[in-house]
Amino acid sequence: MMKRISAVLISVICAVVLLAPVSAFAQDEAPELVSISFKNAEIDGKFDPDVLEYGLILDDNESSPTLESYSINGKADIFITYTYDETNHQTGLTVTLQYDWGSTIYNFSYKNVQKYSKNSNNLLTAIYCTYGELSPALNDEETEYKLYIPSDITELTITPVTSDIQAFCAPVELTLNNKQAPKITLTCTASDGSEREYHLSIKRVDKTTSQVKAEMAQPGYTSFVDGTRFYQKPEFVIAVCAAAAGIILITALFVITRRIAVNPYDMEEQPFFSEED
């Protein structure tokens, strides 16, 4: 009996020893950022997934660069954040590739940042939120927006991008339960101190994060919110059509009833007898 138990233990130990290197090797194969590009900026040199530090040359050194495109080999989320000096002047941006067992961080430092000068530009040019969708699209007139997120998301990172590179707007990181839908205020402060507030109302859609991820991966993806608003749902459309049909029917019955119940006497007809009679 003891010999059998010993044989089993030896077999288990051998299996663990043989499989451990394979598991470690598989985990070492982290997702890779194959390529990345930015609007209003060019990377100084060729991008290499193994190089983590880069210079970034701004096309317009008064405006913040924004993410244009990227390609990832493997399953990972990408986060963009902006770096500032002690006086809240933008000095670069950071790209974080986040995957299940770790992350890879790339730093991009501006090489031709504008010299400091005061102005009143307190506008945002973008609001990043992984698995979040802003409505309406960000513009210079409106300050009230809805931010749609999956029903089960609990970690929320919102990164505002200032239009002017010298303005400042702090990112927001929240831990929520899957029922919370708070209202968030982003305050963009221009270099002259003037402020503009953006208000985001969080709205949860009836889709999980996995479902949203799958939709975003589809060719030609545009929105995970379309079709989920109450006025876009089939029940709402059916109700509106039924109400419209009811109004048309009532109107038709009213017209028919009026015609049937019309006064048989002509109120303008002169009496056939004379007043002298």
Task: Identify the notable features of this structure and list them briefly.
single chain, four-stranded mixed β-sheet, 277 residues, alpha+beta, five-stranded mixed β-sheet
Structural account:
The chain is globular, with a radius of gyration of 32 Å. The longest helix has 27 residues, at about 1-30. The N and C termini lie far apart (about 140 Å). It has helices spanning about 1-30, 210-215, 235-260, and strands at about 30-40, 40-45, 55-60, 65-75, 75-85, 90-100, 100-110, 125-130, 135, 145-150, 155-160, 170-175, 185-190, 195-205. A five-stranded mixed β-sheet has the order 2-3-7-6-5, with no helix packed on it. Strands 9-10-14-13 form a four-stranded mixed β-sheet, with no helix packed on it. The protein is built from three helices and 14 strands. With about 280 residues, it is an alpha+beta fold.
The N- to C-terminal Cα distance equals 138 Å
Helical residue percent band: 10-25%
- Using the CA coordinates, give the radius of gyration: 32 Å
What structural class do the secondary elements suggest? Answer: alpha+beta
| pLDDT averaged over residues | 82
For the sheet with most strands, the description reads: 5 strands, mixed
SSE run = HEEEEEEEEEEEEEEHH
Which runs of at least 5 residues are low in confidence (pLDDT < 50)? 16-26, 230-237
How are the strands ordered across the major sheet?
Answer: 2-3-7-6-5
Shape: globular
Enumerate how many helices there are, as a single number.
3
Instruction: Say what oligomer this is.
Output: single chain
Give me the count of strands: 14
Measured by DSSP, the beta-strand proportion falls in 25-35%
